[in-house]
Amino acid sequence: MAPGSFRFGPFLLDPADRRLTRDGAPVELNARYLDALALLVRERGKLVSKDRFLQEVWRGVPVTDEALTQCIRTIRRQLGDAATRPRFIETVPKHGYRFIAPVESEGTEPPAVAPVAAPTSGPAGAGPWDMALQLGGAGVLGGGIAGVLGGLFYGLGAAQPLPSGMGAGSIVLVLVALTVAVGVIGGAGVGVGIAAARTARGHASAGSIIGGVFGGLVVGAIVKLLGVDAFNLLFGQSPSEMTGAGEGALLGAAIGFGTWLHAGRGLSLRLTAAATALTGAVVGVLIPLFGGRLMGGSLDLLARQFPASRLRLDPIGALFGEADFGPVTQAVTGGIEGALFCGFVVGTIILVQRRFGSDS
Fold first, then answer.
1. CB of 131 within 8 A of CB of 123?
2. Is 8 helix (H, G, I), strand (E, B) or coil?
3. In angstroms, what CA-CA distances link 216 with 1, 81, 251, 254?
4. What distances in angstroms separate CA 268 from CA 65, 287, 358, one per listed residue?
5. Which residues of 184-201 are buried (b: 16+ CB within 10 A; e: fewer)?
6. Are residue 167 and residue 42 in the same domain, yes or no?
7. Helix, strand or coil for residue 11?
């Protein structure tokens, strides 16, 4: 072992060389999480308080309790440890953590963890603008993926049979572009809302849900307002019953709930995405049942309000035994939309948190 290094179980930690290995193979930890592990190992057998982590690992950068919780969860996962039956890191509820495994040290132990050149950007240690940018960007990516899939579904359905004078490719392309635009805007709004609420409230439970609701509400209202005004300006009439603030708030709440499941309950990425997609599907089914509209219902409303429109979604209704885009079709397609949007947005948010050091 190199001087200043520590061995515990199959692991070797060398704080000076910024390396953690298992039986000689590198174990991936970002700089801040490596510092947190080094602090725990140096203080083995002793309680390390939350305040010490904030002072010595985050060095005064304002972070939420969630950031520390996610840090410990990531370290445990890389060590193959579990909170319920700890072999390395023991939780002391409401106080901090203790490293409980036997440790061999070599040479003089360094007085402090190696300095980090700059605070990590991202939800775990970022300022409000960084967090908003990262979660908003994650929402853009997730909403865009959901928009592509939703646009393909509606485009391919609407292209059978082909409207006169239009090719299937044109229909699919137009609808994909439209659904991607709505998905990107909605995902960005929800992501920024969650980031703002977490910053204000300092934790991820109610903050995530409230932020999702607020972000979806604001974006939904803006999109509807601009859409109504645009149609009034161009055509002298507008579909006032198109999707808007209420629908956005409900989908945003489902996404906020999903981020809380991941951070507050420790669900894996797959389970969180699946649970959130299911929640979004339920919300998407309920919205048209209670008189609201999502993308499919809004597209059908637009097509019917403008008789010259060549867009017809009746072929999709035929898939569900209806002569047109009726209530059953709206409920089913609403469930599909809700599942896609919520599942992909929450998945990309979690991936961004992992990338920037706040994975749980």
1. yes
2. strand
3. 54, 37, 7, 10
4. 19, 28, 13
5. bbbbbbbbbbbbbbbbee
6. no
7. strand
Q: What is the pLDDT of residues 44-75, one digit of tens each?
A: 999 999 888 888 888 877 677 778 888 999 99
Number of structural domains in the chain:
2
Mean pLDDT, residues 233-239 taken together? 57
**Domain membership flag for residue 149:** yes
In a domain, 1, yes or no: no
Gyration radius from the chain CA atoms: 25
Domain residue limits at 277:
128-355
The CATH number that applies at residue 35 is 1.10.10.10
Q: Which of 158, 178, 142 is nearest to 340 (CA)?
A: 142
Looking at the structure, do residues 140 and 98 belong to the same domain, yes or no?
no
Looking at the structure, do residues 86 and 218 belong to the same domain, yes or no?
Answer: no
Last residue of some domain: 105, 138, 154? Answer: 105
Q: Is residue 319 part of a domain?
A: yes
- Asked if residue 150 lies in contact with residue 337, where contact means CB atoms within 8 angstroms, the answer is yes
pLDDT digits (tens, 9 = 90+) for 260-272: 777 666 667 888 8
Q: How many CA atoms lie within 13 A of 43 on its CB side?
A: 19
